[in-house]
Design goal:
single chain; 281 residues; mainly beta; 5-stranded mixed β-sheet; 2 helices; 8% helix; elongated
Length: 281
């Protein structure tokens, strides 16, 4: 029998099938599965990540159409903050990042970041964390993973609050690396660095923050921070007595700032909104 020439469509279909099987036969990365996560060591690092041939496990979290992923694990040397970012120069929106922590036999998603974003999360000494680099749209074969551990600032705990000048002058600070302790978590405030200011005379005190983010510092009556001691940092200040101290917390997402407390003594008349033991304005 004389074979007939193959049609163009037949040749095209054969090529597609061969390409498809070829892609399936690509060797998966060694850290394709969470059980085979590559171990990261040290306080910081930059790693080139290959996603070529990577797959998704059946029970793996799919985020925004994730197609494939690879896994890393890192053990925190001490309590502090982990900064991380994942980059892809050719297709910056094609790679996503997930951070997972094993807790009591369960896996919790702590936070995630799109490509080029810098994220941070508090980490506990000796606990192992999982980092997953994911390809959202199936177009990224390579990415760059960077991580850095930061020690807590010296004023990370409210018991170690740094004194602020009573004369209204400002101090420079950074909240990067601030962690959330049990007291902050119970009060609903997390990742703060702390300052203490003591009124030299009676008046109205206003905490002022200069930072890239338009945020107001949290102000508390001296003591354990909580809803019972939180006071609203109103634009006209809060009434204070001579010798009274205020605790001031600044959020950990503010990397650099200047902070001061301005005291007005010209008028001491209480306004209708003044509350010494309330968390309402």
């Amino acid at each position: 029998m004389i074979s007939q020439p193959r049609s163009a469509y037949s040749l095209f279909l054969t090529a597609v099938l061969l390409l498809g099987w070829g892609a399936r036969l690509l060797a998966a990365p060694a850290n394709d599965h969470v059980a085979d996560a590559q171990r990261l060591t040290g306080l910081s690092g930059v790693h080139t990540v290959s996603l070529s041939g990577a797959t998704l496990e059946p029970d793996e979290q799919v985020w925004l159409g994730t197609r494939r992923s690879v896994w890393f694990r890192w053990t925190a040397p001490a309590t502090g903050t982990l900064l991380f970012t994942v980059a892809r120069s050719a297709t910056p929106s094609a790679v996503a990042f997930l951070l997972r922590q094993e807790s009591d036999g369960r896996t919790n998603i702590l936070t995630s970041a799109a490509s080029e974003e810098v994220q941070h999360h508090s980490v506990d000494a000796g606990r192992t964390y999982w980092l997953s680099v994911m390809d959202r749209f199936g177009t990224a074969d390579e990415a760059t993973l960077s991580f850095q551990w930061l020690a807590p600032p010296p004023n990370d705990a409210f018991g170690s609050a740094i004194p602020l000048p009573a004369d209204g002058s400002s101090v420079s600070g950074s909240a990067t690396g601030g962690t959330m302790d049990q007291v902050e978590g119970q009060a609903g405030f997390g990742g703060l660095v702390w300052y203490r200011w003591t009124a030299p005379v009676a008046g109205r005190a206003l905490a002022e923050l200069e930072a890239s983010a338009v945020l107001s510092p949290l102000v508390f009556r001296d003591g354990v921070p909580g809803n019972g001691t939180f006071i609203w940092n109103r634009h006209d200040g809060v009434p204070v007595q001579a010798g009274e101290s205020l605790l001031i917390g600044v959020g950990s997402h503010i990397h650099a700032f200047r902070l001061r407390v301005r005291l007005e003594t010209a008028r001491l008349v209480a306004t209708p909104g003044d509350r010494f033991d309330s968390d309402t304005p």
